[in-house]
Amino acid sequence: MTVKSINAVPQDKDRVVIFDTTLRDGEQCPGATMTFEEKMEVADFLDQMGVDIIEAGFPIASDGDFEAVSAIAGRVKSATVAGLARAIDKDIDRAGEAVRSAKRGRIHTFVSTSPIHLAHQMHKTEEEVLAIITGTVNRARNLVEDVEWSAMDATRTPVEYLVRCVDAAIRAGATTINLPDTVGYATPEEYKAMFVAVRAAVADSDRAVFSAHCHDDLGLAVANSLAGVAGGARQIECTINGIGERAGNAALEEIVMAIKTRADALSFHTGIDTTKLTRASRLVSAVTNFPVQYNKAIVGRNAFAHESGIHQDGMLKHQLTYEIMTPESVGVGKTSLVMGKHSGRAAFRTKLKDLGYDLGDNQFEDAFTRFKALADRKKHVYDEDIEALVDEEIARMHDRTKVVALTVIAGTMGPQMATLTLDIEGEHTTVQSTGNGPVDATFNAIKQIMPHNGTLALYQVHAVTQGTDAQAEVSVRLEDDAGRVVTGRGADTDTLVASARAYVAAVNKLMVRREKVTRAQAAI
């Protein structure tokens, strides 16, 4: 084929392109699987935040992955949508089909290049791999103009051979060259030197954007990514909260804020709206059910908290004494303890706007009622409490069934008993049920009123804030006989009430999906 000449390298040489792979590499993290709806929600937010490329999934992996990539490709407004493909013809074709409807679609194909991978995984010679690179990149370029090629385990590949592979990929039409630290083995000095050496040795290196993709096995993913940029890379591949295979990937929020905060040392910039970083972190944490560690850089609960007397004294005198960036710059309010039971509607509405919520009148009134009830029960109401409360209110807005009342009798003398009242489209139904523990009794009561064929695949509880009066945020995941998976979430200071709300939310989703399938089958 004749390769079209397109300007792959950004005109702004100091712009670092952000390639987010939360929906692909991030989801490969054991236990982090997302439902279709959750992937759409994350993709929409990444697009709004200014992510340049969204790697939406691995289309050949499953029909579900293909459908998710296709749907994201059709709905994303600004970002390029990428689909991953092994260096296999059927993978390439499937990825091309998945991103076909995108305004800007990319096929990201990869093959191993290190001696250890070629000998023990690929069982191929160096010459055979070079032929594979040329053939598959060429095939991908016939389907889309934007092709990324990755040298899996690049950091353990001899530079001389890596240069031959990169040269072959660029000649075949690759517009982005990714040199990943696949196993998190490199040091920053080594990673920078690799980019410098390869770019200097490949004659047409200026025809492609070079990319860094680093794993965090030694805790060096962010440092290595920034070192890659210093070596000439202008794309960084990362994930929200750093989730991913094994120890994870470079964290998007850390990459972006390091570049923004240390502009004196890192003369680069990104297109990310940093005020959305905290919301993105909480969204991904919620849909993957992976809590963010309290001391996580940028988005952790303690990132802008000060308890030490010395630190507090310094902060009262001047913010820069102990904070190198403002909380507002990453979407965190100046203080988390500002609301209580004496707060009025005006203050509550202002707080919601500060947290990024714009609710309609009915939603606002429902949220305010629940806030006042929470404030009566809880000594301190934090921003995280309000966010959990409002997020649940928004999620439950269209639910047909809602929890009205729950009473549970528990203790050492079983069986435990739950008395539950549900509102089903305006009508109240009350039942009693027993179970092996209070949660089981509660869920059995819900099943009596809302019979379903779902199996409980996940039940997870975590505290929204500190203290014994903290709200519990519960996630419930159900899977039906057809393999459909749904997740419901609920929050309340009473863990059992939060559990009931989460379970009802999940059953609501399961029933909606079942009705959609029934209607679709009836229409055939």
Textual characterization of the structure:
Mean pLDDT is 88; it is low at 1-9. It is built from 17 helices and 16 strands. Strands 1-2-3-4-5-6-7-8 form an eight-stranded parallel barrel, surrounded by seven helices. It is of the alpha/beta class and 524 residues long. Helix 6 (126-143) packs parallel to helix 7 (159-172). The chain is globular.
List keywords for this structure.
TIM Barrel, 524 residues, alpha/beta, globular, 17 helices, single chain, disordered N terminus, 4 domains, three-stranded antiparallel sheet
Quick structural summary:
This protein has 524 residues and is α/β, with parallel strands linked by helices.
Write the layout of secondary structure elements.
Layout: E1 17-20, H1 22-26, H2 36-49, E2 53-57, H3 63-75, E3 80-86, H4 89-98, E4 105-112, H5 115-122, H6 126-143, E5 146-152, H7 159-172, E6 176-178, H8 188-201, E7 209-213, H9 221-230, E8 235-238, H10 252-261, H11 277-288, H12 309-317, E9 337-339, H13 345-354, H14 361-377, E10 381-382, H15 383-396, E11 401-409, E12 416-424, E13 427-435, H16 438-449, E14 455-463, E15 472-479, E16 485-492, H17 495-523
Parallel strand pairs: 1-2, 1-8, 2-3, 3-4, 4-5, 5-6, 6-7, 7-8
Antiparallel strand pairs: 9-10, 11-12, 12-13, 14-15, 15-16
